[in-house]
Amino acid sequence: MGTTEEVTPVVEYVFQLINRLKSCQELAIEKMEETKIKRKAWYDKNAIKREFSEGDLLLVLKMNRPNKLSVQWKGPGKIEKKISETNYVSRAKEDSNELEENFPCIDSNPNNFDFDEITKHSQLGNRLNVQQIEKLKEILCRYSKIFSNEPGKTHLVEHDIELINDVPIRTKPYRMSARQTDLLQEEIRKMLKYQVIEIGESDYASPMILVETPGKDHRPCIDYRKLNEVIRTQFYPLPNIEHRIETVAAAKYITLLDLTKGYWQIPLTPKAQRLVAFTTSFGTYRPLRMPFGLKNAPYYFNRLMAELLQGCEKFALPYLDDVAIFSENWDDHISHIDKVLERIRDARLTIKPAKCKFAQDSVKYLGHVVGLGKRSPAQLKVQTILDFPVPRTKTQVRAFLGIAGYYRQYIPMFSSLAAPLTELLKGKSKKGYINWTSECQKSFVQLKEKLSTNPVLYAPDFKRQFILQTDASDTGIGIVLAQRNDRGEENPILYLSKKFSDAERRFTAQLKKSVKLSFMQ
Fold it and tell me: What are 441-450's pLDDT values in tens digits?
């Protein structure tokens, strides 16, 4: 007896087919959504969320009439109303003459922003968790336009020059080799590209030279010595290096920023452009931005940085074109970075990405390694001192004492140790040969040995008591400032010393104590 196949009714078969097709459709939609999310994530890898507020200026991409297939940027236009995150009402200004005056342009290409590239020297994975890195990335992406290898142009400060007399200064260009001329022409092309200079004439002209240092890139310099003699001096004190090192060293999170070609971000007044013109063997040029070598350039740059970070002194300190942002905890640090970057963006300045370091526990800062409440001499600088040859002239002795003296606060009784060397500098002659004695050699070696031990100083904690110790020898006095840590150990904060004058050496022990008290004051 044969078996018979079960026959499915037509209506039921149709419903089963519909259900199968529906399941296939749902599966296809699900896979399409997954693919869409993956593609969007890849496409938006370097995308930046942009939001505008009422009153902001922007350019609008509009169709050209009568050719609707052609588009052109129009504006700048001012946002009058915000409808949603992606829709705005803007009234464009058709007068192209207002573009340069009103639209805040920064010489930066946002497509060049790469978070991983900018932070590669920071090694964030060693000290930050994933959430902290994402928060930092969000902040940096928000200000991506200010990270550029091209200088910006600030509106906060404009360099002007006041002369003592009005006699024009013109100097013939210096002679250079064909190779140096080619190198200088290439540098001039870069400066023209950045709109730092322009081709022009002037009744004032200073010569440009090419400075070549072994192991470093060549750089063009303008010899402004004659012009500087007739420029009225403007004084603005340089920041105290020691105060900055102590302050930054106490922090647990430190970020370092470096402005891109800082001087070139300050514009010149038309009057100053005429006065600082420079000449070469192939033409005369007028700087549009502040060049190196001008007498009052540090004054204007310090003024810019002081105005830029006014009110941020408790967490951000500048020294020339370097900015240190320092904080005690992560939440404060990310907020401080946000505030400083906002100031830099609003000032239309740019930052050199390769020289930035973010959220570090210790950094190289002004020749020192600072962070986590400690500081020590930078090893590269110490090695320069250790490799210094035995001096043969007063100039060489002065050079050695200069670089070793920069770290004198790390060496107890520095003045007494260096006394035989400072004695060599006496006399009217500044460049003469010296009588190098065994005492000089001993002093020379001891100073090197003191720095070779990698000395460490601690940042002062003004909530703790200070310990002050003094000592005196036949040649000078020394002072040690220290504090006790939680384990009761004494941590040195600072070493001070003073060499006795010839008269002070003849003092009695009691009088030498009074010298100590006077020096401490």
Answer: 999 999 999 9
